[in-house]
């Protein structure tokens, strides 16, 4: 033990450091290994804590920040180690200097974007925007979602500008982007490609709430729910799981139906075409019995009405209300099935029929004169 201590005291640490930093790539490899080892230790500590007790913040960090953390920390370790000698090492190795600086800025942007995502999820983890009745919650989630994307865009623009500044030939361009005049010029360029128009439309939607996350909408003759509201487009998940991607300006310039704008309740319609002989009172009583026994009915609206008379049948409309559009659709299907079964078994003559009446001078085919023929 005493020999080891004597050996350590006699080591010329400054000379050893100069020898180790003689090769820039060697230093980068060493610090990268040290950074990865540090990330691994932190990851194992987080895993150990989560096994003992679930923590929402640590779970989100491990899920969304792990990859960016494994890139950011080794790069930070290298820059710190390289600048210990007052930056002399970086001046001697310009290629390593540029590479590490660009990598550090890029990894920092990645880290910030991932942390913004974690912050958003951490705030809205107790909200349930999937429920139509949670209008205020869906409004808050939509605004927070758009704000996070807007801040992410600003972070990316600033990060790209800083990367450009690191290169001598692009320094003026990077500085101009960071100035107000440069940003204004960039926005004008975006406007030429309708990007600025989409961005302003997104801000308008976030403030006025024409649509929100999980809103039920009818666009392009397709019913679906708003799945994503991005800076330039909106993703609508159609009822059959297809995705309809629309420019965000569509919801500012084009009329569309929002079935959950202020209230998720909706009135469903069941149309029946029946024979003139149908007993409407009996049909109304049976329909009311079916509706009252169905848990999907919200007990707000119910009506059975003859809304039209056609040449061969009458049109009966059944109105029922439900708490949301999926419930209304299922309720309509249930009523339609039960009513058809009721009429088929109890009043089969009430189903649509076609009548042919012979008015000749004598009987035809054994049918008395004037007797109608039903089919």
Largest sheet: 5 strands, antiparallel
Q: What's the total count of β strands? A: 10
Q: What Rg do the Cα atoms give?
A: 35 Å
Envelope shape: elongated
Q: What is the mean predicted local confidence, pLDDT?
A: 78
The side-by-side strand order for the widest beta sheet comes to 4-3-2-1-5
SSE-based structural type? alpha+beta
Distance between the termini: 111 Å
Strand content: 15-25%
Order of helices and strands: HHHHHHHHHHHEEEEHEEHEEHEE
Low-confidence segments, given as residue ranges, are: none
Helix content: 55-70%
Number of helices: 14
Question: What can you see in these coordinates?
Answer:
The chain is elongated. The strands form three sheets. The chain has a five-stranded antiparallel β-sheet with strand order 4-3-2-1-5. It has a three-stranded antiparallel β-sheet with strand order 6-8-7, covered by helices on one side. A hairpin with a 2-residue loop joins β1 (216-219) and β2 (222-229). The protein is 57% helix and 17% strand. The chain is of the alpha+beta class and 375 residues long. It contains 14 helices and ten strands.
Task: Quickly list its features.
single chain; alpha+beta; 17% strand; elongated
In short:
The chain has 375 residues and is α+β, with helices and mostly antiparallel strands. It has 14 helices and ten strands. It has helices at 2-9, 13-20, 24-52, 56-64, 66-82, 88-92, 94-124, 135-165, 171-178, 180-192, 195-208, 250-253, 280-292, 325-346; strands at residues 216-219, 222-229, 233-238, 243-247, 257-258, 266-274, 297-309, 314-322, 355-357, 372-374.
